[in-house]
Specification:
- The protein is mainly alpha-helical.
- The chain has a domain of about 110 residues.
- About 65% of the residues lie in helices and about 5% in strands.
- It has a two-stranded antiparallel ribbon with strand order 1-2.
- Strand 1 and strand 2 form a beta hairpin.
- Helix 3 crosses helix 4 and helix 7 crosses helix 10.
- The longest helix has 24 residues.
- The N terminus is likely disordered.
């Protein structure tokens, strides 16, 4: 019988080593996995989760603890240099980072459900909850699928090709984490905070529609 050879990418090999290290309670592996997840999360959460930095950090901590527990309980494990799942004992579908962001998405859902009655109107999700009786799960499912590795990159690419005004507003709000009052001072052609909110909402609707159109063709 011919021997089956599994070719592993450097990322797969690294993730398998980290999972094995966590299972073996290696402090070095713990620190490396934390930094590995945190760097990816910090670079990408603004394109997926409509929240401020402090809340995003809380979501990250909860998601990382859940990932750690899944490894310690054997739900994820290393075998033959691959990350495996206990459901079907097959290699993980996608990367460990994608799996982690799926956990973070669920933690974000919990976070929004706990805070619907006190939603911040300066955050897009909060505005829609108050104005439209918005279903937070629907928004998350629209713009992010943990089984699609490229969705975050698609969102970032769409933002980069939007109108100069939308690019400026969304970049300042979600990437530079500036509040609306600061943005209003930096864009003198927009004269009122309500006008800025309206424009930001319009830009978000354009972003959402563009992402959905691209995903429909994938």
């Amino acid at each position: 019988m011919a021997k089956i050879v599994n070719f592993r990418t450097p990322t797969q090999a690294r993730e398998a080593r980290l999972v094995r290290g966590i299972a073996e309670k290696s402090r070095a592996a713990q620190n490396e996995l934390y930094a590995y997840c945190y760097d990816y999360y910090s670079d990408n959460y603004r394109a997926v989760f409509f929240t401020v930095e402090q809340s995003a950090d809380e979501i990250f901590q909860d998601a990382f603890i859940a990932l750690w527990e899944n490894i310690e309980k054997g739900r994820l494990y290393e075998r033959d240099g691959m990350v495996m799942t206990d459901k079907d004992h097959k290699p993980l579908n996608g990367s460990l980072l994608t799996y982690f962001m799926g956990i973070a998405r669920n933690k974000y859902r919990e976070w929004t459900r706990d805070r619907i009655t006190t939603a911040d109107c300066d955050i897009e999700l909060g505005k829609q909850i108050r104005d439209k009786g918005f279903d937070s799960d629907a928004l998350i499912d629209e713009v992010y699928d943990p089984d699609e590795n490229g969705v975050i990159e698609i969102i970032a690419d769409v933002i980069s090709h939007m109108s100069p005004r939308c690019y400026e507003i969304l970049s300042k709000f979600y990437y530079e984490e500036k509040d609306l009052d600061t943005i209003l001072l930096e864009i003198p052609s927009i004269t009122t905070k309500n006008a800025l909110k309206t424009k930001k909402h319009s830009c978000m609707e354009t972003l959402r529609s563009s992402v959905l159109e691209i995903r429909a063709t994938m």
